[in-house]
Specification:
One of its GO terms (biological process) is regulation of DNA-templated transcription elongation. The protein has 177 residues and is of the alpha/beta class. The protein contains 3 helices and 7 strands; from the N terminus they run E-H-H-E-E-E-E-H-E-E.
């Protein structure tokens, strides 16, 4: 269809293709997080609502229609992130630190020896806290599911999309931030 037949004011702007960020948890599922992760999330939400959004809105208000495209997109991105974090916060449940190192549970760090002898550490955290570079894996990940409830000396097999990985738990400890 020719652009000549499109109503320019009918919402056809830079933000039309932006949709709500989907939650990484199923409806009704709690958003389990460590206390540190929950604090980081609340602080990010505060920063976005109290600093970033007002800054972007103020910038937008002083521009003519032609110059608004990029700032409007930035404001929409901030609003999407605020919406996402607000919905995740509504489902938030902080998991207290475990009282024992007997078995691997949420929040603890497991040192494992993989088949080739390499020692790797995994900490089980919330979905928004996961950081593979640091060895922090979501409680919903295959690695975490294989580790939960296990103890030192247990051998586990993790089923991953690229195949199975076998490992032995050689230590369980409290994580240091």
């Amino acid at each position: 269809m020719s652009r000549a037949f499109v109503d320019e004011d009918s919402g056809s702007d830079e933000t039309d293709d932006m949709h709500e960020i989907p939650l990484p948890i199923a409806p009704g599922v709690r958003n389990y997080m460590t206390a540190e992760g929950a604090l980081r999330m609340v602080e990010e939400l505060r920063r976005l609502t109290e600093v970033e959004r007002p800054r972007a809105a103020a910038l937008l208000s002083g521009l003519d229609a032609q110059a608004k495209s990029k700032p409007l997109r930035e404001l929409s991105l901030i609003d999407r992130k605020i919406s996402y974090l607000s919905r995740m916060k509504a489902a938030l449940e902080v998991v207290p630190p475990p009282s024992s190192l007997d078995r691997m549970v949420f929040g603890l760090l497991a040192r494992v020896e993989e088949e080739g002898g390499e020692v790797v550490c995994y900490r089980i955290v919330g979905v928004d806290e996961s950081d593979p570079e640091r060895g922090w894996v979501s409680w919903a990940s295959p690695v975490a599911k294989a580790l939960i409830g296990r103890k030192v000396g247990d051998r586990i097999t993790v089923k991953l999309p690229l195949g199975e990985r076998r490992m032995k738990i050689i230590g369980i400890e409290y994580a240091k931030e």
